[in-house]
Amino acid sequence: MITGAISRAEWKWLVLGSAVLIILSGIPYCIGWLMETPEHAFSGFFVAVDDGNNYLAAMYQGAAGRWLFHNPYTPEPHAGIFAYFVYLLLGKLARLSNLPPALVLHLARAAAIPFLLIAVYRFVAHFTSWPVVRCISWFLVAVGGGLGWLWVLAGGAFAPGVMPTDLWVPDASAFLTMLTFPHLVLAQASILWLVTSGLRLLRHPNGRDLLGAALSGLLLSLIHPYSPPLLIGLLVLYWIWRGWRFRSLAWKPLLYLGIASSTSLPLLAHSLVLFCTDPVLRSWQEQNLVRSPHPIFYLLGFGLLCPLTLVGLLWHLPLHHRQDLSFLILWVLVIPVLLYLPSNLQRRFLDGYQMPLTLMAVYGLIRLLHRIRPAWRRRAVLCFKTISTFSNLLLLGGFIILVIGRPPSVFNARSVLVAMDWLAAHAEPDVVVLAAYDTGNLLPTRALVRSFVGHGSQSVHSDVRREQVRAFFSGMLSTEARLALLREHHVRYVFYGPSEHALGNASPASLPSLHLIYQNDEIQIYEVRNGVQTCQWCAAPPHLPPGPLWVW
33 and 145 share a domain? Predict the structure, then answer.
């Protein structure tokens, strides 16, 4: 078998493996929907719920007809931006199909999984013709993890930032990526597709790989605009190294690579300009901290891959397995440096990094085992593959147990959803609603409004706003201070439900400018009128029946 070619037998088990992983990744979500009750509805997420609601909010905007994303988690006026394109498009598909948005999101995630797994295998096949190396590498990327399970068994802290990365960083784990959101799956697949097509262009410039690199770069720039420049930069560095090694620079491959990379430049320029000039977007960028944890958590997160990669780097491989090996080495060595450069996006540089690390580790494993008897070699490989799955089995089991317990962070009260749907049917677009943080995070998924606070990075001065909301509902502010807060931020509605009650007993009903316009057994919604009637339902009785759920 030649390098890069994939046999029919490989395609068969690749399709089977993809189907198995689609089913495995969907089990916790199916259980979540089965665990719904008349009082509580599954949010559709059990990890990164705040971000999940953010993506549903983008889908809501897409369903409403928008092609530009408007930040729904801050009261400051701002222009729409070309972001979250995947979710704006999914929102339109949800509208057309009349399916629940969370279901459409996860159908898209499931559909993206084979794209990622094929990209992984295509990447490995580019470097080696050995089917056994391809299969081991694919398996370790698809379901492999690090030593996070040992951390859990030892009683270590289980919280983001203070535990091994294989337990909480999707960028570092393809399996965790497949358990989360479709855009992350598509991003990792696009990275591998772009790199593989780019390497093939550098060897043999042709139209097919030019198109593949251009399309994958375009898709990647729609999701993570900062990723294509990094990958193209690595490819250019590799082209320079090849020119130095062979004492000749081939300019045609570089020209093809430049043409392919041009598809991602407009979106990168668009993002840079907007995030530098718009104060709301600049605040979003400054608060979007994805910093690297302590190096020990990376070492534990990648586990046995780290020492095996070191073996692969130090020992030479057989000549017929060295196609573009230098690029793998370059990728493996550059990313650890970038992870600790002063930047808010440090962890984002991990995107796709599991792949070169795994392939180099498999090369190292082959070197360690090549002198032992074949029977013992197979047992050692089986043991290594089994151990690599422990962290992901722990995660999968933990998520299933989590959704069975119906925690409030994962299940939403239907009374709250009904009140939000009523507001969606009556509120004007983009009006500001003041509510507790978790209510504000959920509200834009059900109504085309802006929350006073609701997202850690997208709400301007998020920590300050959360404190202001707490003071508003706890009674720490005087009546005049509460009214001044509403006026300053042009708040139109105040949402008062269980989360707001939990902050204190200062009901909005005591404020002279607020009028009750909706209530059910648990929720009241007040309008800030400042003495002027501004809505058609102002004369309605204070107790209104719950409105119907918004129909897609």
Answer: yes
